[in-house]
Amino acid sequence: MNSVLPSTNVNEDLSAQLLDKVQQQAGTIARVLAEQGDCSVNEYVQQLGPSEHSSYQPVSDVADLLLDYVTPLLGREIAQTARDELMAQPLVLTANHHGVDFFAQSVQGTLLLSQRELRLEGVTRRARIVPVFACGSVAMNNLTYPRGALLYGADDEQVPLRLPIFPDRVKRQLVARTAPFDQGMLDRAIARVHKLAGEGRITSTTQNSMCSILTEHYGAREVLTQKSYSDQAVMLNARLWREMMPPEFDSELVYLELEQIGARLLQQDLGNEQSLISILLFNRTVRAELMTLLNGAKGCWVGADLLTQALDGQPLSGFGTFMFWGVDSKGRRISLGVDSNSGIDVLRAVDSSAAFEPVPLTPESITEAMNQGHLLPSLFCCYTAISLARGVVCAGGYYQAEYLPVMQQGVVSALRSHGSYSDIVAKVERVKTNCYLSGMQMVMANDSQAGLVPAGPVEIIAGGGLSMAELKQLGQLSVRLAHIASLSETVPDVVPDQILSASQLTRLAREIARRQKDSLIVK
Known about the structure:
Layout: E1 3-4, H1 14-25, H2 27-36, H3 41-46, H4 60-74, H5 76-88, E2 91-93, H6 104-113, E3 117-120, E4 123-126, E5 129-134, E6 148-151, E7 161-164, H7 183-198, H8 204-218, H9 221-224, H10 229-244, E8 252-257, H11 258-269, H12 276-282, H13 284-293, E9 324-327, E10 333-334, E11 336-339, E12 346-349, E13 359-360, H14 363-371, E14 375-377, H15 379-388, E15 393-395, H16 400-418, H17 422-429, E16 443-446, E17 452-454, H18 457-462, H19 468-474, H20 479-485, H21 487-494, E18 498-499, H22 502-516, E19 521-522
Parallel strand pairs: 1-18, 2-15, 5-8, 16-19
Antiparallel strand pairs: 3-4, 6-7, 9-10, 9-14, 11-12, 12-13, 16-17
Helix pairs in contact: 1-2, 1-21, 4-5, 7-8, 11-15, 12-13, 13-16, 16-17
């Protein structure tokens, strides 16, 4: 049961209390603040990339894939630049959820990545492409709310206020399996915006900004004609990015679905017996060891054989999945495990009541099931193909920076158990896996209680976007202060069994305004 955080003495520093509570729950944040809390966010971003690059499989596989994925959505020039920059610096942001991103914390993590520099053709310069591989195996109603938009410019007890665009019936669907929105949904969303403004729940500035976004960007013909919400989101995130950034900054946001990238790499890897994924999936000795080693690990699975954990006829949750999620006819994910009872290895639903046809554990059957939309690569599967096999550094959230190194060690130990993969082990071990880029904010919006609250795209665009001077200023904010500015969104995520009361949120907003207003960008 959720509980409200205890009230504190008015003379106590609420932000310090909350930051301490967050550090107790998130070891990554505690580590980063202890080691780099006093450096600027710009200095922090510059050290994220790999110091060297030597991977088991070529990073060019990922770079070439970008060319194919991005070209039809954002154009050949952006796709080619994305490919070239990934080859020069194999670094991507993987902290975000897929969908049109209005969640201030992830929007501003993307903003931080845009400050990075790379060396290309003998010249060190700021990167032009901001590459994001965002998780699409999340529900449309999750914390970041890909089902609609988040409005921070609200005079309401609920900030941010949720503006639905998709109907309620899709809220449990995976972003990766959701059909595109249409004009009728946009018309209803615009009507909701006007109603919220008429009730005094959002400001007129927020009303105008959101209506403009829905009309000019969501309603653009090239967006409405896409075949999936996932592809619409790629286009819309790029369009909103251009609205937020000054033209002279000359950058492009390439915000892609992680599982699409994982699936496209698997098309290559499943047919290659020497690929890392094939060894982990089809070498029974290695697979059995891997399943035991990562039993209970975050982002993996529970039980060396998930099926032994099933309670017949009872819905299950929190079991993770082995390598792939099953997807049912309603676009919802199903936990899978390996069943060898019939003499043939198959991927079978952990919950015996789930409507999922078992998939033989063969390259051909897995490929066909992915193509038909019945299988979706898991986080473990995606990170193994992208990062552990090909050396791409994945800068993630506070949880990923803890669980990806655990996945890495599990893979290394499983390979060592076989005794003939020492060359692969040496390369997988060298991949940098503890990178963290989340939980920080530098751009805020004024609220009606004379405090500062996070700013998402609606508020940044309403405030005229960011200037070059503001981009320079935000880069100088310390890592510690950027974490404090993000507490109203970090606390509900990291300390989920406790909530901030309305009065505490107001007090936090006022405290941030009083102590950090001159350091932060205020729109």
